[in-house]
Design goal:
The structure holds 3 protein chains of 3 kinds.
Chain A lengths: L1 H24 L7 E5 L5 E5 L5 E3 L3 H8 L6 E5 L6 H6 L7 E3 L5 H6 L4 E4 L2 H9 L4 E3 L14 H9 L3 H24 L8 E5 L16 H8 L3 E2 L11 H7 L3 E4 L4 H10 L7 H4 L3 E3 L14 H12 L8 H13 L5 H8 L11
Parallel strand pairs in A: 3-4, 3-6, 4-5, 6-7, 8-9, 8-10, 10-11
Antiparallel strand pairs in A: 1-2
Chain B lengths: L1 E9 L5 E10 L4 E5 L6 H8 L7 E6 L2 E2 L5 H7 E4 L11 H6 L14 H14 L14 H14 L4 E5 L7 H18 L2 E6 L2 H7 L2 E6 L2 E7 H4 L2 H8 L21
Parallel strand pairs in B: 3-8, 3-9, 6-7, 7-8
Antiparallel strand pairs in B: 1-2, 1-4, 4-5, 9-10
Helix pairs in contact in B: 4-5, 5-6
Chain C lengths: L1 H26 L7 H9 L6 H35 L12 H14 L4 H26 L4 H25 L5 H10 L7 H20 L3 H6 L2 H6 L4 H23 L5 H13 L3 H25 L7 H19 L1 H5 L3
Classes of the chains: A alpha/beta, B alpha/beta, C mainly alpha.
Chain lengths: 355, 257, 336
């Protein structure tokens, strides 16, 4: 009797091992796979032309749509969908799944997701430990964002071997390059090296919430000739006193809380004593499908818009019509002039303040 | 004068811990509640000092029902000494003794010269002056109990109730505490109610004894009449005997004269 | 008499240090102000000192006042709880006030309330939680301290589970980050209005505590001794619990949950004063104020951001405490 049980156990165990080994081999069984390197240099073998991806990393969402891969998106990080603009600009988004930042592994498996774009290393590692393909694509580069502006566009063209994707990605890259070159050329005569403090208004953390040296914003304002204050701070949440001590020449404020934060700057002491506030050097960054200052389909317009605001004597690009045509081209939605107006005022598509 | 009438106390229905007790106590005398552990001595004393709420019966101090006496005035009618206090070790003796005067002070007052003089006076009466600046935790159990009793006297109440104050003490310390108690109680003409499970304490204090069993008082009278083999066998059993009947000589302490 | 003298000297000295630390707090920070500018900006109306004056009055003054008062409130309520519950390991959060206040704040943040409304909600929720604890404690047993402590643990646990649910439902980008930030404890959002409100609460509570400071000793003896010595034990116990709750709720509402100080300052003070509330409460006031203001200076001066307060109070509190315990080990451990 005992022997019988032992035999059965051994058989079961052997079966288990074999099946485990099998599942481990599965990845190399794909007829066409590709090895790609993600943003932090980790190599991963993945299926070519995956048909179902999850954009937990927010920077990947609108670019994938812009490159014509919207139908490959299974879902994205849920807070992206809180923005009313998303539904207006890209109505198909209502059918997408809303992922948590630290979504349970079983969700990805049960939804048959081929690939996850993860915003942080620990999230990607966790996914990979559980047999889910994940690539790190973050909003931050190391040591700066200089080398990473076109990284995601190149990564996408490696993963999806379609001509239309290549074309669209190239067009986007060229437009970004062109925007940067144009702005630099047009502002040659301007006085540079003014200090600029960027306030991240995507969370309601007050004025003392900014980006540091690794961020795209640091890259963007640096190449436009500004002294980006966040780059030399030891934290991305500087105290009020630290900001007063820095006394920047210019504030730029993005995110859904921009109007609240402008009000804070203009009405609370001691911010009112700062040069930028006294000289009314406070500027905003529009919020569309994403914040314009996030690397996205709107990145070329971000440069033109900021140049208009920061160098009014040298630049006056028609950013509103550019926005209208870009959105039509990438997302297939025709916004009204009024809606574009709202976007540039930090309001939602119905004219209400975002926060 | 304390009048107790038809006192009944129970935690669970029909299991009385105090079973219909009535008696009267006269001022200036020493009373001993004698009985085995669990006979209801502690419960009776807690009822008498208002720590347990009355359910049936009456307790009157000088004509005032206990539940009608305000808390601060109760301090003038009675004080209480427990078996031992565990939460007092960190206090300085002088501070601790002054706490007994709280009943007659305004809520915002701190003890002043007058109060500290009283503490000093009683400390010398009890012979504990040398401890005044020590912490209670640094003293022996007997010394601590002497201080608790001293505190009860400082309170200047008419009646002092003590719940087995000597039960945790050794023979010598029992004698010290009892002698002091006897001496000062006589000087101050206090009414003392003292519970114990040791019949010799009643003889030593020359007190009026209440014999307690199962929540009832089964007999009472002056100690010499009650502390007899016949009467005590009701609660202590048939094996009880006088020391001279024993095959060895029992050791005890003399009452100082 | 020498004991009283010693306390008077310690109190005078610590009061002087409190004032010094208070003025120092107004002078130091990330925005450097020279002594000449400092004097100029507070003694004149000169507009060249506008920024300095604004930093001092709008940033440093409110947070220093609130830090000092919070330190006082938490230390005194810690001491009150430790004495009333006859347990030296008890801290102001014992009856669930901090957990409750945190839940109140989190709900207000979820509903998008303003800064002062968040504080108000935290304050009210903290008090309601303690009332709930007392009611549940009375269901267990009316006069036992243990039943109240047990009820505090139960309600505290319940509140932290509500907190987890709120955090789970909160939007990670907006409300969740505000909640986490609030929970870490900070004086960064201090305003003069808040400072005004908390000072009224603290002054009234401290006035009551000081007036009954000697009497608290008798409450600390426990029900049997206190009641037979002639005080209305239950009344005083609930009075003390109410005051400690008001103090803690007010400070949590202003600065978030700051740990350690309420546990450690009373211990440090007792090592000096001995166990007598008429001596330990005054010292608790000055020591608590000094400790918290110093902690705030440290939290905001050395880095561009702000180091979480509980990190500083925990680290420095325990270091000071260990040193004192080693020095005074004979007194502390001799009779346990």
């Amino acid at each position: 009797m005992k022997k019988k049980i032992n035999t059965i156990l051994i058989i079961l165990f052997a079966f288990l091992i074999v099946s485990c080994a099998n599942s481990g081999n599965n990845s190399s069984n794909y007829s066409s796979t590709i090895i790609v390197t993600d943003m932090i240099g980790e190599k991963l073998e993945i299926k070519k032309n995956p048909s179902k991806v999850a954009c937990v990393s927010r920077t990947t969402y609108d670019l994938l749509i812009a490159f014509g891969l919207g139908d490959k998106i299974d879902g994205a990080y849920k807070s992206i969908y809180n923005n009313v603009w998303v539904e207006t600009i890209y109505p198909k988004s209502v059918n997408e799944y809303q992922y948590n930042y630290e979504e349970g592994y079983e969700t990805f498996i049960s939804r048959n997701v081929d690939l996850v774009f993860a915003p942080e290393k620990y999230i990607a590692d966790g996914l990979k430990d559980h047999g889910i393909k994940a690539l790190n694509v973050s909003l931050y580069g190391n040591p700066t964002f200089d080398e990473y502006v076109y990284f995601f566009a190149d990564l996408v063209t490696q993963i999806w071997d379609y001509d239309y994707v290549k074309t669209k990605a190239n067009v986007w890259k060229n437009r970004v390059k062109e925007a940067i070159d144009t702005v630099i050329a047009d502002t040659k005569k301007e006085v540079k090296e003014k200090s600029l403090f960027y306030v991240r208004g995507d969370k309601n953390k007050g004025i003392g919430y900014t980006d540091q040296a690794k961020a795209f914003t640091e890259y963007a304002y640096r190449i436009m000739g500004f002294d980006f204050v966040g780059a030399r701070l030891d934290t991305n949440t500087p105290s009020s006193e630290e900001i007063v001590a820095e006394n920047p020449d210019i504030f730029v404020i993005g995110g859904i809380y921009q109007n609240v934060l402008i009000n804070t700057l203009e009405t609370t002491e001691p911010y009112t004593k700062l040069n930028a506030v006294k000289n009314h050097e406070i500027y905003t960054i529009p919020v569309g499908l994403t914040m314009f200052e996030q690397l996205s389909a709107m990145t070329p317009i971000f440069f033109y818009d900021q140049a208009n605001k920061l160098f009014p004597n040298s630049c006056s690009y028609d950013v509103k019509s550019m926005t209208k045509s870009t959105i039509k081209e990438y997302f297939g939605t025709e916004l009204s002039d009024q809606q574009i107006e709202y976007m540039f005022e930090g309001k939602d598509s119905k004219g209400k303040y975002l926060a | 004068m304390i009048k107790i009438k038809n006192l009944i106390f129970e935690y669970n229905a029909n299991q009385p811990i105090i079973d219909n007790i009535s008696f009267e106590l006269k001022p200036g005398k020493i009373y001993v509640l004698l009985g085995l552990n669990g006979c209801g001595k502690t419960t009776l004393i807690k009822l008498l000092v208002g720590l347990l709420n009355l359910k049936s019966g009456t307790i009157e101090y000088y004509g005032n029902p206990i539940e009608r006496i305000p808390y601060n005035e109760r301090a003038n009618f009675f004080s209480y000494v427990s078996q031992s206090s565990s939460n007092i070790y960190d206090y300085i003796v002088r501070d601790y003794l002054s706490f007994s005067l709280v009943g007659n002070m305004k809520f915002y007052n701190h003890p002043k010269e007058f109060e500290m003089k009283k503490v000093q006076e009683y400390a010398s009466k009890f012979g504990i002056e040398k401890f005044l600046n020590k912490k209670l935790g640094e003293l022996s159990g007997g010394e601590r109990q002497l201080i608790s009793i001293c505190g009860a006297f400082i309170q200047s109440s008419k009646v002092i109730l003590m719940d087995e104050p000597t039960s945790a003490l050794d023979l010598k310390n029992q004698n010290i505490v009892l002698s002091k108690l006897l001496q000062i109680a006589e000087e101050e003409k206090k009414t003392i109610i003292f519970s114990t499970h040791n019949p010799n304490h009643a003889l030593f204090l020359d007190a009026t004894v209440f014999l307690m069993k199962n929540g009832k008082i089964i007999d009472y009278g002056i100690s010499k009449k009650i502390i007899t083999k016949g009467k005590l066998s009701q609660i202590y059993g048939e094996e009880i005997c006088y020391s001279e009947e024993m095959s060895y000589k029992e050791i005890s302490f003399k009452r100082k004269k | 008499m020498s004991r009283t003298k010693k306390i008077v000297i310690f109190f005078g000295l610590s009061l002087f240090i409190l004032l010094t630390v208070f003025i120092t707090a107004l002078m130091v920070g990330r925005y450097s102000i020279s002594i000449k500018d400092f004097v100029g900006s507070i003694s004149t109306n000169d507009s060249i000192y506008d920024t300095q004056r604004s930093v001092i009055i709008n940033l440093r003054l409110p947070r220093t006042i609130i830090a000092g008062l919070t330190g006082i409130a938490l230390s005194v309520s810690g001491l009150l709880y430790q004495e009333t519950f006859q347990n030296k390991l008890v801290s102001p959060g014992l009856l669930g006030v901090s957990n409750g206040a945190s839940v109140g704040a989190a709900i207000a943040i979820l509903l998008g309330a303003t800064n002062s409304l968040i504080s108000f909600s935290a304050f009210v929720a903290g008090i309601i939680t303690v009332i709930l604890t007392v009611i549940i404690g009375r269901l267990f047993n009316k006069s036992s301290s243990i039943s109240l402590i047990l009820a505090g643990i139960v309600i505290g646990g319940f509140m932290s589970s509500i907190m987890s649910i709120i955090k789970y439902t909160a939007d990670p980008d907006t409300t969740l980050s505000s909640i986490t930030y609030w929970l870490m404890g900070s004086f960064a959002d201090s305003t003069l209005e808040k400072a005004f409100v908390i000072s009224i609460i603290v002054f009234i509570c401290i006035a009551i505590v000081l007036s009954i400071s000697w009497r608290i000793n008798i409450v600390a003896l426990g029900y049997e001794e206190a009641q037979t010595k002639g005080i209305n034990y239950r009344f005083y116990r609930y009075l003390i619990i109410s005051i400690a709750t008001l103090l803690t709720a007010a400070s949590v509402a202003c600065a978030g949950a700051i740990s350690w100080i309420g546990l450690i300052i009373p211990h440090i003070v007792r090592l000096i004063s001995g166990r007598n509330t008429s001596r330990s409460i005054p010292l608790c006031i000055t020591f608590g104020g000094v400790f918290m203001i110093v902690a705030d200076i440290l939290s905001r001066t050395f880095t561009g951001g702000e180091i979480p307060l509980s990190a500083i109070t925990g680290a420095f509190g325990s270091i000071i405490f260990v040193i004192l315990l080693v020095i005074k080990k004979r007194e502390v451990f001799s009779h346990d």
